[in-house]
Amino acid sequence: MLSRVADQIMWMSRYIERAANTARFLEVSYHLNLDLQQGGHEQWSPLVEITGDMKIFEARYGEPTAENVMHFLMFNPEYINSIQSCLSAARDNAKGLRESMPAELFEAINDLGKLVPEAARKKDFFHSQILDLCRRVKRECMMISGMFSEIIERGRGYHFWRLGEFMERADKTSRLLHVKYFYIHPQLTDLETSIDDMQWLALLLSLDAREAYHRTHGLIKRDNVIHMIVLNPAFPRAILFCLQSALQSLNLITGHVQGEPHKKLSALCQQLESMSGASIIETGLNEFIEDLQLNMNNINSSIFDHFNPDPTLSTGA
Amino acid sequence: MTFEGYDTGGFFDELFDNAGQARDCSRLLIAAIEKLPKGDLRRRQEASERAMLSMGITFNVYGSNEGTERAIPFDIVPRIIDGQEWDPVEAGLKQRIKAVNRFIDDIYHKREIIKDGVIPEWVFTSSKGYLPQCQDLNPPGGVWAHVTGTDLVRDENGTFFVLEDNLRVPSGVSYVLLDRTLMKRNFPEVFHKSGVRRVVDYPIQFMKMLHKLAPEGIEKPNVAVLTPGVYNSAYFEHTFLARQMGALLVEGRDLVYDGKYVCARTVDGLQRIDVIYRRVDDDFLDPEVFRADSTLGCKGMMKAFREGHLTLANAPGTGVADDKVVYAFVPDMIRYYLGEEPLLPNVPTHLCIEEEALEYTLDNLEKLVVKPASESGGYGMLIGPASTKKEREIFAKALRANPRNYISQPTLALSRAPVLVNNHFEGRHVDLRPYILHSGDDSYVLPGGLTRVALKKGSLVVNSSQGGGTKDTWVVDRTPELEEI
Question: Would A314 be classed as within a structural domain?
Fold first, then answer.
């Protein structure tokens, strides 16, 4: 398999996963803010904070109002991580892979790439349009991931897809958790109050984890929520689950050849396996997340290096 | 669905004779269409077009915004050629491509045809496709033009003429294969009874030819199709051919030169590539030798080619013969290299660089077709009878300024074929592009080829970039009695 093709598959799945996560997050935050309006606790800037692209936002929009933030994250074609940009990038990658993809899968990704720009042309109430789009993007992305499970042979292409998907999801879940840090930071007095509970709940909701959480842990408790979304090895959006799945796919791609990315990824999994919700709080949530993200970025570049042979090092085989 | 009232308009019609009777080869089809209930053919046509769109058979229109992907229009009435009429055409094409390959090899070596005074030297030195960098290159088997798409037209008597030879990177063959798939679905009975020559094995023939012309000593060559990428107007065809041939589809950025071989970067490391079917123009193949700013090819490619570690199809430099002035000399090449009389005639051609021809052309602009010598895609030509005075004036100026760059030909009464227009049939002008695979001692000619049809009423321009469509082309060997269907 060409290195470029492997890369394109990973990016295609990453972009789709990224769009879906932003959609999840936007939808849940919107509802949360509706409830927080009362008492003036509505906050939109954390949504931009977690993208890490606050500067780009401020330069283009200024104030983080609801409309500005929603437009930025959903429609802005110049912002590479907006939902529209992600889906259109996924579509471009799919075009480059067309010859090796079942027609139905290509058509689904192709259509999804057109969804947001087409909606943007319709005159509709902005808020309801955004909410409707969030739901549809989330659903369509899950459907495409499902199609992969249903119709793609378990070869390298499949596992590169999963690798991209899980690395992206682990990163996005960590960013979601990070937003909680941004929420609580300016409002320490709200700690352990009902607003705090609502924010943790919103976090669980955006991961579709509410039911699973209540079943396992009962009432909302900070340490338990952190365990659920970071360390739970059975919940498919938890960071540990994602990293373990990524490692599995990585191993299946290379057979028994172990390289840098294998080593780093399995070390990170082991580190997380030894932690608890309480020990994460002890480290400090912000420090833990920043460290984790650094680690994952590192793994991503190792993956790239591993699968993109340097012509100066090898000869024709 | 009836052909009643269909008017051949005094042109040679591919399916009907001058008296309006179906030709022997098309009788079965006409009878089958006439039995269809009204509206049925239209529905089939629409279903076929939808199938093309959903298969993603689209081309990008240059000069318009992203997202302007269109399906090439497809007409459901096939063009039919009698096998006995086809055989001499096939022989003529083989003869022609053999001579052209000899010519290119000669030009890049001893230039005997020039020394012997058969062709003047300026003809090739002024050809845009001539590459001095290719002097003394020896592509395997002496083959330069592996794939050729030669455009044929028929005049009012039905005689086939060669209009031009597309020797660089001819496109369109994927439409032949796809149109055929659709037509087999639409007319299985007629198809079955007519003995239509198959086109489905073209990708296999292609792969066999590439294997045969791989660098010496390579038993199982690694074959790649080199595409400029997803934004190229023919990208669909590149992916289609790669998939059908079982070749790797690569872009320039996938390739590296390791000092000896061109290799593809794969997840397992570098993989040697032995044969490249390239759909990238000469100029962009190797930034070290040609355009330095090209990212579509790979540095070192020409070195690997020169040293015999890589086969390039078509070989760089082949374009020297893809020039409408050089074209005019092909009959002379056939006589010179093969000692044979040409089996397929050229369209009479005036070379504007010759003073007499230039004067004649300028005096008769409203009757002639004037073409730039090295453009393709139907761009930049003047069709005299359909031109305005202003257009003729602009062309007259351009002709005087750069006569080498132009040729003129009589406006031919191109043959026509019926196309479906709403719920009736009308005649439209067609041409034919057969594809020839040349492997040195032998050639394979795709039976029939791509029929392009000028869908605009009265138009003579068949290029897809200029509003043309396609038709399936059947070369049939049996014309059974009517009652069988």
Answer: no
Same domain flag for A175 and A93: no
Minimal CA separation from B297 to chain A, in Å: 15
Q: Do residue A146 and residue A191 come from a single domain?
A: no
- In sequence order, what are the beta bridge partners of B224? B248, B276
Chain B CB contacts of A10 under 8 Å are: none
The residues with which B334 forms a beta bridge, in sequence order, are none
pLDDT of residue A190: 52
Quote the number of domains for chain A.
Answer: 2
Domain ranges, ordered by start, for chain B: 1-194+323-347+412-485, 216-309
How far is B60 from B88, CA to CA, in rounded Å? 36
3-class secondary structure per residue, B120-172? CHHHHHCCCCCCHHHCCCCCHHHCCCCEEEEEEEECCCCCEEEEEEECCCCCC
Fold of B216-309: Rossmann fold (3.40.50)
Residue A64 and residue A207 in one domain: no
- Smallest CA–CA distance, residue B449 to chain A, in Å, is 23
Q: Using CB atoms, which residue from B242, B254, B256 is nearest to A99? A: B242
Q: Which among B54, B235, B250 has CB closest to A2? A: B250
Is residue A142 located within the same domain as residue A233? no
Structure tokens given for A260: 């840098």
Structure token digits, residue B61: 């229109």
* Nearest chain A Cα distance for residue B300, angstroms: 13
Cβ within 8 Å, pair A309-B272: no
B483 Cβ contact list (under 8 Å, min separation 6): none
Which residues from chain A sit within 8 angstroms of residue B261, using beta carbons? 316
Tell me the mean pLDDT per 10 residues along chain A, length 317.
Answer: 94 96 89 73 81 89 90 91 95 86 88 86 78 93 95 94 97 88 57 72 89 88 92 95 97 90 96 94 91 96 91 49
**Closest to B474 in 3D by CA, of B200, B205, B202, B199:** B199
Residue B129 backbone zone (phi > 0: left; psi -120 to 50: alpha; other: beta): alpha
Q: How far apart are CA A241 and CA B295, in angstroms?
A: 41
Minimal CA–CA distance to B236: which of A126, A219, A106?
A106
Least Cα distance to B10 among B409, B415, B426 occurs for B415
- Can you tell me the ipTM of this complex? 0.74
pTM over the 0.80 mark: yes
> Which residue of A3, A87, A104, A160 to mutate against B (max B Cβ within 10 Å)?
A3
The one-letter code for the residue type at A21 is N
Cβ contact B263–A311 (<8 Å)? yes
Q: Which of A46, A85, A86 is nearest to A66 (CA)?
A: A46
Domain that holds residue A187: 154-308
The verdict on residue A91 lying in a domain is yes
Residue of B nearest to A94 (CA): B230
Measured in degrees and rounded to the nearest 5, phi and psi for residue B445 equal -115, 125
